[in-house]
Write a structure and sequence with these properties.
mainly beta, seven-stranded mixed beta sheet, about 0% helix
């Protein structure tokens, strides 16, 4: 089953210093029928104005991944971590038993756009931790590149959940296959461009797909496309 959620069905907002959209219930947007997809709880597409950001605030028992698409994002937390991330970099924070952090646009001249993703961990009360990793954007074309996974790796952030986040670029007319174990879910976000799924379902920029009971996917670019795929339990 492939459920397509068009871009204009997401909850969009504009607060001046922050604009974007929520794919699941978040903040002022509350829909009891749209709170999660498996362990996935949040998928926000945020644009932060120069020099602005989120002040110190707490989290617990949540795996938080930030994927910077352009600009620079500055993170600071009460664990002593400070990092500035740009495209090609990934931030992963395991809030565990509790952490306080800030997220700001590190530039006073350009916006920063990021995807912020939250997932329930496999275990509550874990020791909080933070990690930054990087991938090579040149390697995205024509393949699914893992950027976050359970095991982690030299260029892959680790996460306390049985899942993997991939990024990929496909040129128009090109395709690739994705296979997962039966009983798992997939979540796809078309960051830019158009993507066909199994020759039937179609995604355009900003659209998402929530996929269940479909372990085999054929992904074909209807036009040049940049997308994210998440393999979930």
């Amino acid at each position: 089953m492939i459920n397509i959620i068009p871009s204009d069905a997401r909850s969009s907002f504009d607060r001046g210093w922050l604009r974007g959209s929520h794919s699941f219930s978040f903040g002022e947007y509350q829909d009891p029928e749209n709170t999660a997809f498996g362990p996935m709880r949040v998928a926000n597409d945020d644009v932060i104005a120069p020099g602005r950001g989120f002040g110190a605030h707490p989290h617990s028992d949540m795996e938080i991944v930030s994927i910077v698409l352009n600009g620079k994002l500055r993170h600071e937390d009460n664990l002593g971590n400070v990092a500035v991330t740009s495209f090609g970099g990934i931030q992963r924070m395991s809030a565990g038993s509790g952490v306080i952090h800030t997220e700001h646009n590190a530039s006073d001249q350009e916006e920063v756009r990021l995807l912020q993703l939250w997932f329930m961990p496999h275990t509550r009360g874990l020791k909080p931790s933070y990690e930054t990793t990087s991938f090579d954007p040149e390697e995205l074309t024509g393949q699914l590149v893992p950027i976050v996974s359970t095991e982690g790796g030299p260029r892959i952030a680790s996460i306390q959940q049985d899942m993997t986040i991939y990024l990929s670029r496909l040129n128009k007319g090109k395709s690739l296959s994705f296979q997962q174990a039966a009983g798992r879910r997939s979540y796809i976000f078309a960051i830019e461009g158009k993507l066909a799924l199994n020759g039937e379902s179609h995604l355009s920029t900003g659209d998402t797909a929530r996929i269940e009971e479909t372990p085999s996917l054929e992904l074909q670019a209807s036009e040049d496309v940049f997308f994210m795929l998440i393999d979930l339990p």
